Amino acid sequence: MHYKTHTCGELRLEHAGQTVTLAGWVHRRRDHGGVIFVDLRDRFGITQVVFNPAHLSAETFALAESLRNEYVIQVVGDVVKRPEGMANPKLATGEIEVVANKLTVLNPSKTPPFVINDDTQELDEALRLRYRYLDLRRERMMRNLIIRHRFVKFIRDYLDARGFIEVETPILFKSTPEGAREYLVPSRLHPGRFYALPQSPQQLKQLLMVAGVERYFQIARCFRDEDQRADRQPEFTQLDMEMSFVDQNDVLEVVEGLLTAFTEQFAELHGKHLMFKPFPRLSYEEVMERFGRDKPDLRYGMELFDVSAAMRGTSFAPFQAAHVKGLVAPGCAHFTRRQTDELTEFAKRNGARGLVVLWHDADGYRASGAGAKLSDAEKQAIMRISGSKPGDLVLLAADDDRMKLNEALGELRHELGLRLKLGDPDALAFAWIVDFPMFSYDETEKRWVANHHLFTAPRDEDLEFLETDPARVRGKQYDLVCNGYEVAGGSIRIHRRDVQERVMRLLGLSMEEAYQKFGHMLEAFEYGAPPHGGIAPGIDRLTMLYAGAPNLREVIAFPKNQQAADTMLGIPSPVSEKQLQELHIRIVTEEEALERLTK
RNA sequence: GGAGGCGUGGUGUAGAGGCCUAACACGCUGCCCUGUCAAGGCAGAGAUCGCGGGUUCGAAUCCCGUCGCUUCCGCCA
Question: Do residues A591 and A269 lie in contact, with contact meaning Cβ atoms separated by under 8 Å?
């Protein structure tokens, strides 16, 4: 027996005259005394059901009167064209209605803690998460789930058609020394030993390349025990990919092709469009100079400008530094001193020494503050180079450390972009960031550290600087950014033993240590590892962008809150003494733990 | 670990030392109503203002502490 012959989203004029059975939730009920309308909802849509006493027994009509929101019901009725002028253009099924002649209440419902049939109202998220199964019933959340499904389905089809195969890798993995904090899983069979949940299948996918898979992908769950952000969850999903016999360009083209195709083919679903086609490729150096951030929001300009040369020899003390740069906040000349002070504070928090503000009025820069102290020639130079116009606000900063200056202004640019809503909410500004510096010097530990991971290949032309000038070595490493988010990151890997050894030597890693930590990798690489590389786009972040959602929780069915907890499930939860015993685990207080450590 | 924001009937908000016997909208309950689709009308129930302490003649309102949620910094090879 089937509960329904049709979904609540599929009936049209052509079905008029048919007798159908529908089942779903009471979305809304309009009781006119004599006639009752019920908007019946299932995942596929909403259909108006009419209960008319003329066509019903008294008992059935009474039952219809007892219906409340979110009751689960089944209705048998006739599809009829709505009377003239009564069609509802807001509903896909709005030309017809179902005149009920039989009603079954499959399950009543308590009054929900919040309304399901209106998702325009903002709700306390703690409440939503506590009743996530109700929250997900709301149209917006259901739509997000559908966008995510379409995206993942598209990925599988797209990559399958291009010779990729999906291979699953273990969730019970190995604790790795570097990188993010891991979730540990105690072993029952091996007292005192642990599995670790993977931060990503990085090493395993490289081993799959050694295995000859050549084109691998996986919709892979990853785990990181770090503090949460709006765009960071303790468990998240990556499109993990790796390819053999490829260079950087091959990897970029596959991902760019996939995202371009999905964006364009499903424009009607998500309503977003590409800002750039093809995606621009910017070097790390260029992006830091122009935007001050390695994940810039490119939906708007507001680029940093450089007036260092023009300010050389200035008598204005704040600009007596090696580098003077700034940006133009369009149409912000109305900002009050209080507002610009706030921006100055923001810039300082992000490493700027201060912020110099110029108000561009109808007749040039206002003669107050810096505007009074800079010479006319200096002001003219700033106006020419910045291109500021009357009504704009010019913000400048100076520093001897150029990268620090870029970063401070970059964060300021990003903040202003958000506040002024400069980005088109329907645009996706994808861009590749390439040629990242491979190493940076850790001042506190007095040693070179890898910016990505130690299997990242250096650019061929930079190999010669590996020993002489490590800061100059750029990697075959790339990020995909979109609207201010990093949405993918990857690299071409080292496949030659000699290069790998040189990198490890630079990082102060002896072969002995390296074998201890990564022996399984190094050993595998000695059995004919092909040249290979890969990338891992973040499924959650991309879905968030397609859904136009403000955080990851909106596109994850059952997310964790900021404390990495789930209040609906009540996790993390305590476990029984017996379970702990089996796992050879004893809970100790912080004091006891400290005591053991110091002994 | 640190900084900011928020916490008032079921939900979303208003209130900023006495106007509060806490208001409004939605929801909920009952009654009326045969063409609505955010239905409409009438009536009603529902809040120890997150919690604890303090200041004051008087606290939702001010102060201190605490808890919860959230955003950001640190952290995320």
Answer: no
Element (H, E) at A413: helix A402-419
Q: Which H or E run contains A385?
A: helix A376-386
Q: Are strands A532-537 and A235-244 parallel, antiparallel or unpaired?
A: antiparallel
**Whether the predicted interface score ipTM is above 0.85:** yes
Q: Does the CB of A250 sit below 7 A from strand B?
A: no
pLDDT in tens, A371-419: 889 999 999 999 999 999 999 999 999 999 999 999 999 999 999 998 8
CA of A191 to C1' of B22 (A): 61
Nucleotide nearest to A224 (CA to C1'): B76
Distance of C1' in B12 from CA in A114, Å: 10
**Widest pairwise Cα distance in chain A:** 95
Tell me the C-alpha distance between A429 and A483, whole Å. 6
Spatial distance between the Cα atoms of A375 and A450, rounded to a whole number of angstroms:
46
In chain A, which residues from 69 to 98 place their CB closer than 7 Å to nucleic acid strand B? Answer: 69, 82-83, 86-88, 90-91, 94, 97
The whole-number Å distance from A37's CA to B39's C1' is: 10
Question: Per-residue pLDDT tens for A248-276?
Answer: 999 999 999 999 999 999 999 999 999 99
Lowest-confidence pick of A119-123, A250-254, A542-546, A562-566: A119-123
Residue A354 (CA) to nucleotide B15 (C1'), in angstroms, measures: 40
Which of A's residues 22-51 have CB atoms within 7 A of nucleic strand B? 28, 30-35, 37, 39, 48, 50
End-to-end CA distance of chain A: give it in Å, rounded. 70
